[in-house]
Design a protein that fits this description.
Elements: H1 8-11, H2 17-26, E1 30-35, E2 40-46, E3 53-59, H3 75-91, E4 98-99, H4 108-119, H5 134-138, H6 140-149, H7 153-159, H8 161-165, H9 173-186
Parallel strand pairs: 1-4
Antiparallel strand pairs: 1-2, 2-3
Length: about 190
């Protein structure tokens, strides 16, 4: 029996070196999106031989400075984080990138973030079939569900306790989303 040495990052399931090699050979800048239980982090990275350079970064924690009162890790927040990163990239005269997922799965939250980057004006390859609908992104489904649930006051208050504690009506969720999106659009990222 012989010993086969594997790299620690492969053993810990952290790096897919085939994808990484393809990114480095292409010499294209890329976007990474990481979704945790509470936050979303998005980075625009330029690959380099001595280590990657992060040229722009956006996080769902930044949404609070725009007055976001919803969850920091749902589809709406994912889109807004991508939109912020896209606006930061445009302010740095960057107009294109590719998505690098590495070992992470391509989920609807990643797709929403990618759509936000594209809606900000960045040329990024994506498939329209893989993106969530606009109604899911802007929270229209939340508003509709809140209207249906309003008759059962106890369940309504339990289901939407975070929104109600933040003084926002769940029926106005999509309106709140559009207000925050407009604030991000009008912000100066220079």
């Amino acid at each position: 029996m012989s010993y086969v040495k594997t790299l620690k990052r492969i053993r810990n399931n952290k790096t897919n070196y085939r994808k990484r090699k393809a990114i480095l050979i292409s010499k294209r800048n890329f976007v990474t999106i990481k979704v945790s239980n509470q936050n979303i982090h998005c980075q625009f990275i330029q690959p380099a031989m001595n280590g990657d350079l992060v040229l722009a970064h956006a996080s769902s924690k930044e949404l609070e400075k725009y007055g976001w009162k919803g969850s920091l890790n749902n589809l709406s927040a994912s889109f807004l984080v991508g939109f912020i990163l896209g606006k930061k990239m445009i302010s740095k005269k960057i107009d294109s990138a590719i998505l690098y997922t590495g070992k992470t799965a391509f989920t609807s939250k990643v797709a929403a973030c990618l759509k936000g980057i594209a809606d900000a004006g960045i040329n990024i390859p994506l498939s329209e079939e893989s993106l969530p609908s606009d109604d899911r992104i802007n929270g229209a489904h939340v508003s509709q569900y809140a209207n249906n649930l309003k008759e059962n006051k106890e369940h309504y208050e339990k289901q939407f306790s975070k929104l109600l504690s933040n003084h926002i009506s769940p029926e106005d969720y999509s309106k709140h989303f559009e207000e925050i999106k407009d604030q991000v659009s009008n912000s100066n990222f220079s």
